[in-house]
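re: ur question from earlier - yeah i can do the single chain one, its not a big deal. heres the input i used so u can compare w yours
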Amino acid sequence: EAAEVPSAQVEAAIAAFIPAIRGALARSPIHGMVTVSGYEGSELLVARLLIESGATVPYVGTACPRTPWSEPDRVWLEAHGCEVQYRASLEQDLAAVDRHRPQLAIGTTPLVQACKQRGLPALYFTNLISARPLMGPAGAGSLAQVINGAIANQARF
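and the output i got, formated as tokens:
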């Protein structure tokens, strides 16, 4: 609306991309429980994409404040059993890992270090997650390989 794109054109684009996105999600499911935390602002989007890819995400923490722009994602995540913690601290993120015992934790450097000391696979949000595409068909399947690979390497820890 802000760009004055005709709604018929928007609807056509949505109709063209939805089947491709659903196909990418179906081809690359994620099986496992994952916690997400970070400070970049895309944590809620990543948690939602993980759930839409098949993962169980009981917790997402973000250093960002609650805003009207994140509200639709917060509502969606909470409806899917995910606790959303705004202005999350390292202590809150670690408590969530202890409480939920995920197969994989995604987070900040101190969280990843703490998880690895506990023998839990963990990935850096900034380097390994937020650097990937998140939207459209490319984003829908982009996380599965790295997430499933990390979960499969749990025995190494």
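The mean pLDDT is 91. not sure if urs matches, ping me
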